[in-house]
Amino acid sequence: MTRSPLERYAEDFERLRQLPPAQRAAALAALPLDEAARNTLQRLLAADAAAELDDPLARLLGRGAASLAGALPRRIGPWRVTGELGSGGMGTVLLAERTEGGFEQRVAIKLLGSHLAGAEAVRRFERERRILASLDHPHIARLLDGGQTEGGVPYLVMEYIDGVAIDRHCSERGLGLRERLGLFLDVCAAVQFAHQHLVVHRDLKPANILVDGHGSVKLLDFGIARLTDEADAPTLNAFTPEFASPEQVSGAPITTASDIYSLGVLLYRMLSGRSPYQADKAQLAELVREIVTTPPLRPSQSLTSRAAVSGAGDLPALDLRRLRRELRGDLDNIVLMALRKEPARRYASAAQLADDIRRYLDDRPVHARVPSVGYRLRKFVARNRLGVALGSLALLALLATATVALQQARSARLQAARAEQHFASVRTLANRFVGEVFDHIVDVPGTSAAQQLLLDTGLEYLDRLAADAGGNHALLLEVAQGYTTLAGIQERMYATPAQRAASAQHALALLDRADRLAPVDQDGWALRRDALVALALSETDAQQFDAAASHFKDAIAAPPASVASPATVVARGALANALVEYAKASGIDLAPAARMALLERARGEFAALKAAALEPRRRDAVDVADASALLFMARTQVDDLADPQHRAKALALAQQALQAHEALLARMPADTRILVNVVLAATSAAAIASGAQQYPLAREFYAAARRHDAQLQRLDPDQPTAALNRLALHLEQLEMELRANGSPRAQLVEIAAVGRLVAALPPTVLEQRQGIAVRAWLDTLKAEFSLRRSQEHDVPREQRLALRREALGLFEQAQRGVAQVAEMVDPSTPDMLELLRSGPDRARASIAALERR
Amino acid sequence: MRDAAGDHDITRLLAAWREGDEQAREALMQRVYVNVRAIAAQSLRAMPAATLSATDLAHEALLRLLGSELDWNDRQHFYRVAAQATRQVLVDAARRRLSDKRGGGAPHVELDVAQALPTPERDEQLLRIDEALRALASDDARRAQVIELVYFGGLSRSEVAATLAVSEGTVDRDLRLARAWLKTALRA
């Protein structure tokens, strides 16, 4: 065997590299080596010193070599290294200490990967380090210090926590459900604190959440994942797949919502002792697919069999049946809300997640509710502000224009000094960007980038105007109005609730400033109502229902005595709008009767507006809003079970609403937004008639709905709201025909058509769980009608058998679908559920009966 | 997918190799190579944004082929094969990409694993590392193997020490020296 050329250098290399760099040259010169060998050794030593900074192998193969680079350093900065705590994808963690003033301090030192080399990376590291050092919270391990080793490897010094991972702590101590939730609340508090300081953890998992000897939770490594992540090439090293969010594994941008998801995974495990996923971490590809696409089982369902539980020690100290009962309902819903695939549909903050858990612990109703299919499709139709609310939205926009004109006139009178040319142009631009231009392109498909640009530009103008407004009362009002309009536009563009709330808050702050300059009049008060409604709507969408309710109440409150002038058109319009939006706000605990009262008051304002001599365009807007209010009253009346006449009253209101809408349509036949509302009115009337078992009347209404819908499809084939409404219309009518014993043969033809409709829907219209639910709904209907058809006399025996077998398969398929999306089942239709439950048995019995013959 | 027969097969091959059967090692190597390649391709399809590092690949190959209930001795042997197979997969992929860029080669499934962004420069560098490692292995098998196990197999210091039956101190020293040598060889 050849002697390795390296062997001859091994000993000298090892000895020299351990010398301080300053002494190396002299030691090298003193060695008895020939010139070539000395040069080689020198090159090897130089390469070694640089390797920590720039390791070509690690760079190519993806693992930082710091953890493997050799024996532990004895000192790092002022710290004595005493041991190794562990090593992982992000580098090595060392235990170290120092004595200062007779006090011994122990710390954990994290050596970060060598890819942080380079001036820019070092600057970024320093910047981030300063931010992290400011995170001072009792449940977050402090970042004490940081720097670079002699070899140039960046390191962080953190408070050393002598504790165990939170999951191990729970199982070792045999903690019960409430104790576990208590710990989890502390975790949420720490995460919330960091998020408020704009730091996202990005790798929340039990190994990073320790519980110390006093039972106190400490979170480690806040923001470290980001620190070690290469700017544009996220790698698996930067997070832990079992706790990662869908957006993390698919490479989408990471926000605080990603941490909320990881909290959801943690809570799932703390409550059920199980992972929310079927795949384990060894099946990486499968696990990733599941994270992105498969909805998790409810935690309570994950406990169905003892065999599925990985060890009773991991579970809260309760017997399995009781635990299942405790989890079912609120806790299930809380966990699943945190685990929603779409970041925007999770809890908006860790504080909200914590709030819901506190509500659960206090036996108050939680906000996380998993909507049922019926809820999602029907309430969507009823309350979606793109549909029914178009009326009031249009009204708001029109009235807003009136206010702008008013304010501009006033400002010309009152302000000479600051209403200069510059202002005038910026102002015009701001108004145009925020209002008119946007209105023209908001519904044009494929313009979302342009819309975003407009929105940003509008916001920029508004911010500039706000900064320059100074003591200009009129300008303050105007900019406030701009922000409120902006909040409305942001809503239509699906901006986050927080962004919309920020716009509304800007408006309110400007109004406060304006109020200090001059007495408030009715129009100024109207602006305040509008801003409050915008704020409350954003809060509703963020599921902050208490805050929303309180702002809605402010918005409909009578103006203070100081606001003396008589009610103007603008003031009435704003009040009516606030009343309607409050009545329609979902999630807020308001009895149907209270909603009806709000709507009655709104209609009173509409009546007053109609009596005023309005110009035709605004008159139309008021009529549209009034008709919408009427329709919503019909829908609300149905829910008022306390009233024995609720169905009859609702039917009367629905008929009125349909007539009002058809009258509007006659005046504006090409307006697709009115068409959307007419379809809704007719469908609602049909559903109410169907509920009252007035089937012939219901069929008339459905026919009207279909007629108008066909017209809508001709005018605007791609309207997404219309597509969802259409599906709801067809499914509801099929369900009615089932109850009304409609002809199975005709309905089977219809079902085939609806099946094609579902298949043709773009994936953006139906989200995944909705899709499963809709298919299960359709399968149930088809199974039931097939079974009925098989019992009709004109069907030959062979076909009977085929129909019954098909029914059996469909029932079973629908049951599997429903099991997957159990929380979406609409509890208000027990008859449908019973048909589905008994379906397979009935189908089997009928097959057996046929085969016996 | 792991199947019972496959497990048995792998275990048998490992045992035969321990007995000194070089053919068994070759057979094992081929099985592992195919698996590492499949894992790489799959992970690429599943998450185009994330990239698996070489060591993730080796570990997953191990779990997939053998499960986690593996005899310690077998595990050490398997690591050696997995590290080598991973290196081979990466080198083959790099080589093929480069030859495609130069106009040769038929269309194929792209295998962009282990490098955040495979560029011709990175591919060429990987091939140079492979070549340098092979040169080192002919004279100094142990140090070459340390590099392979650490960088392609993802083994920790103590695991490398156990696999090669040397002390951890030796692993540290070998790794440092071999790495420095590789760097100088790459620059030359």
Strand content of chain A: 5-15%
Uncertain parts of chain A? 62-71, 228-237, 306-313, 370-422
User: How are the strands of the biggest sheet of chain A laid out side by side?
Assistant: 1-2-3-4-6-5
Instruction: Tell me the helix content of chain B.
Output: over 70%
Structural class of chain B: mainly alpha
Strands of chain A, total number? 9
Radius of gyration of chain B: 17 Å
Which CATH class of the largest domain in chain A? Answer: Mainly Alpha
CATH architecture of the largest domain in chain A: Alpha Horseshoe
Q: What's the helix-strand series of chain B?
A: HHHHHHHH
Cα-to-Cα separation, first versus last residue of chain B: 44 Å
Low-confidence stretches of chain B: 1-7, 44-51, 102-118
Please bin the fraction of helical residues of chain A: 55-70%
Taking Cα atoms only, what radius of gyration of chain A do you get, to the nearest Å?
33 Å
Mean pLDDT of chain A: 78
Q: What is the 3D form of chain B?
A: globular
Describe what this molecule looks like in 3D.
The complex is a heterodimer of chains A (853) and B (188). Chain A folds into five domains: 7-51, no CATH class; 66-159, Phosphorylase Kinase, domain 1; 176-217 and 230-370, Transferase(Phosphotransferase) domain 1 (Transferase(Phosphotransferase), domain 1); 379-643, Serine Threonine Protein Phosphatase 5, Tetratricopeptide repeat, CATH 1.25.40; 743-852, no CATH class. In chain A, 62% of the residues lie in helices and 6% in strands. Chain A contains 33 helices and nine strands. In chain A, strands 1-2-3-4-6-5 form a six-stranded antiparallel beta sheet, with helices on one face. A three-stranded antiparallel beta sheet of chain A has the order 7-8-9. In chain A, strand 8 (209-212) and strand 9 (217-219) form a beta hairpin. In chain A, helix 19 (473-492) runs parallel beside helix 21 (522-541), helix 24 runs antiparallel to helix 25 (616-639) and helix 25 runs antiparallel to helix 26. The radius of gyration of chain A is 33 Å and the shape is globular. Helix content of chain B is 76%, strand content 0%. Chain B contains eight helices and no strands. Chain B has helices at 4-18, 22-46, 54-66, 72-101, 120-139, 141-152, 157-164, 168-187. Chain B is globular and about 45 Å long. The termini of chain B are far apart. Residues 1-7, 44-51 and 102-118 of chain B have low confidence and may be disordered. Classes of the chains: A alpha+beta (853), B mainly alpha (188). Chains A and B meet through helix 1, helix 3, helix 4 and helix 11 of A and helix 2, helix 3, helix 5, helix 6 and helix 8 of B.
